[in-house]
Structure to design on (284 residues):
């Protein structure tokens, strides 16, 4: 009986020991599994976080691209509008759109001895004309498109290139001086002036030649078949963009459709030279 009790106790100890070992193993395995689960979740979290950052970066990049594309489309739209306007002006029967824009910047120049034309090149009222228009005059006045009569102050002139810089009081729309190096033979142009006293008359033609020698043999003149008559002197020769490519200067007597305009790049040189000496600034 006593022997049986000892064997039973021993059996119970084995069972309890085995159970304890199983519990311990279970705890270890469970711990490893839980730890592995945490590690996996952490890896998934980091991976997800990285994907979110990558996605956000791609979204930001896409947004920037969309903004740039929108800006490019806006610029393209403006460029197309300008090109369409130029095409319309080139293919239309007249230059009415251009004339409407630039004619308000053209003035009639009158002195005691005669008259000519001028055009405003700076919003502050600075304008150019031919120097020979002013010869012999004691007083110079400018008559605007709105028929305002204004005293004009002589700032300076170049006898060699026959250009004079004047100033009238007020703020005005100006005509931009083009880059005359880009002028092409055959392109359409218009001349605005006051031929024979007929104010703000317009004639149409083409550029017949460039780099022609003038009266002083300086090769800086644009030849045009646009009609030029006494009174046109000092007026602008306008291209399809509404820019002045030259200042109408003279015509060959006895010839038809042989007018000449000093190129705009020379006008810029003269105006800057005069304004630097007298005003200490650059105007164009």
């Amino acid at each position: 009986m006593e022997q049986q009790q000892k064997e039973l106790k021993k059996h119970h100890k084995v069972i309890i020991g085995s159970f304890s070992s199983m519990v311990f193993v279970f705890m270890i395995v469970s711990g490893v599994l839980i730890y592995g689960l945490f590690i996996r979740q952490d890896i998934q979290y980091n991976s997800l976080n990285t994907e979110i950052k990558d996605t956000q970066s791609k979204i930001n990049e896409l947004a920037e691209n969309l903004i740039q594309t929108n800006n490019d489309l806006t610029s393209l739209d403006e460029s197309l509008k300008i090109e369409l306007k130029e095409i319309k002006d080139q293919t239309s029967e007249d230059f009415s759109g251009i004339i409407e824009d630039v004619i308000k910047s053209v003035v009639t120049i009158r002195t005691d001895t005669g008259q000519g034309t001028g055009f405003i090149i700076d919003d502050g009222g600075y304008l150019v004309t031919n120097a020979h228009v002013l010869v012999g005059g004691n007083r110079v006045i400018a008559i605007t498109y709105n028929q305002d009569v204004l005293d004009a102050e002589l700032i300076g002139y170049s006898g060699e290139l026959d250009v004079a810089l004047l100033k009238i009081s007020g703020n005005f729309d100006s005509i931009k001086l083009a880059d005359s190096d880009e002028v092409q033979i055959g392109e359409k142009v218009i001349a605005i002036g006051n031929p024979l006293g007929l104010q703000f008359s317009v004639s149409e033609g083409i550029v017949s030649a460039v780099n022609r020698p003038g009266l002083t043999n300086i090769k800086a003149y644009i030849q045009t078949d646009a009609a030029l008559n006494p009174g046109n002197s000092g007026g602008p020769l306008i291209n399809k963009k509404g820019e002045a490519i030259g200042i109408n200067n003279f015509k060959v007597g006895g010839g038809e459709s042989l007018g000449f305009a000093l190129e705009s790049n020379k006008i810029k040189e003269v105006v800057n030279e005069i304004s630097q000496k007298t005003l200490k600034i650059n105007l164009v």
